[in-house]
Amino acid sequence: MTTVFRTYFYSKLTPQNQTIIRWIILFIATIFLLLGQRSNGQTKSNNNLFAFIENSSDSSSLKFIQTFKCISKKGDDIASLYRAIKQQAHGKGANCFKFKNFTCDSIGTMTLTLDTYYGDDTFIKNNLNNHEKNTVYIISDGNFNNKTYTFRADKVKRIIKSGTYYKHTIKQNEKVKINKGGFFGATATIVWEENKICKFYSLSGFGLADVPFGIYPTPTYYGSPGIGVSFTTGKLKSVDRSFGLLLTMILKQHQ
User: Fold this and answer.
1) Cα separation, 253 vs 255, whole angstroms
2) For the segment 99-112, what is each residue's pLDDT rounded down to a tens digit?
């Protein structure tokens, strides 16, 4: 009966009104499709959460999972060790970690040790708020050799060694432009925003990609990483924030 009524009602409409209704139905269907994709994307992102725990964060609510130690093999770098621990930690139910130790011996064998935990959404949000604001880190690489890297920060030439980084604090209502390779190279422009969480870039292509809404449960927790950031092609790679925080701590320890 309902189907017959709909058919009868539709047949009484003018061709113009029929077209309008079809467009309305298509629009509503598209909205539901996008919402479904966003929901699925956020669920997937939650599974990728592995937050760096700041020392200033209240860790009393955390559940300790396990201490993981990873030793490098030939061809491994710090990112490889981090990735291996992250995968194992996720398998145990961890979603955040504290840096415990890192060593690199005379023959280049690296050992990374992390304490891993499970934190609820409230902890993750509060911990995120404890990260540095409006700060950009430019990382050379995860090696410790004699190689040097050249780039420009607001047209000022900078040279940093392998296994080091450059830190730039963005002043209120200002911006910084990072360039590697000149006019045909890579450029990132980062604009000051209130409570904007720190960003990390690698000059060597070293590191893990920083997915805009892929690290924290919701865009609100993450902030607005995509706003005020622009790129051209070249070797200036965005680095995952948690890995960036870990890496700069390791590099600072070995400077």
Assistant:
1) 6
2) 999 999 988 899 99
